[in-house]
Amino acid sequence: MAEEEKEQSSDGTQNTGGGGVTFSDAQQRKLDSIISARLADIRKERDDLKSVVDELKQAESGRQEQEEERRQRDLEEKGEYEKLLEEKDKKYQEQITQLEQRNAALDAKVQSMGVDHMVDGAIKAHAGVNPQMIDIVKQQLLLGATIPDTGARLRVEALKGTDGDYDIAVTDGNGNRLPNGDGGFMSPADAVKTYLEAYPAFVLADARGGAGSGTGNTTTTASQAQAAYDNAKQKASQTGASTDVQAAILAKQQLRRQSQGG
Length: 262
Hints:
It is a single chain. By secondary structure, this protein is mainly alpha-helical. It folds into two domains: about 25-120; about 125-255, no CATH class. The chain has helices at about 25-75, 80-125, 135-145, 190-200, 215-240, 240-260; strands spanning about 5-10, 15, 145, 155-160, 165-170. It has a three-stranded antiparallel beta sheet with strand order 3-4-5. Strand 1 (about 5-10) and strand 2 (about 15) form a beta hairpin. It is elongated, with a radius of gyration of 26 Å. The model is unreliable at about 1-10 and about 210-220 (pLDDT under 50).
């Protein structure tokens, strides 16, 4: 229908009938460029740290050999040789552990940014998502969302392959990739579509084809809003994380609006 077709605005952005957040091609390219540059910087810092760790380990190995030859001659009779080596080894090991922990944190940050960007893009590409609900949908998919009718769980996360690289995948929350029904695996876009079909209250009414305009549809929408709120509230009580608490508050506000007929 003409009202639902995309229209080209004067500034080059694509407007949808559902009122979802959209970007012009130039804006999207700029956003992707900024994120890619940031990820590249973090990866470089991570790689530099790995190099420092390797060099430190190599230097420590050589140092231990020299220390053994020198100190053994001087301190063996005094019984201090073992103690000295133990103290030195402990100091270097602490430094190596700290660098490895920092490297792991940077690696996790790279994966988190990649997954967050992928899910955010998939949600915004789905026409009609209520702008106020975007963060809730994203948090649910990143932390693990339950589909009410089947009890299935969806989570978008980074899985490390045997080659050491990471793939952004849709899992059951236990690291098992979910199939898409076509012989492959679900993509983040598939996960967004599945989640919004289970929780249509997160989609604007006109993008749902008028859902909520009649008594039957209003009851269904309110039921789905209630399920979304229950799911968000349960997650907030389990984790206590501020993002989950905020998601539960927004879901409750949405439920209240649905209950009041809007």
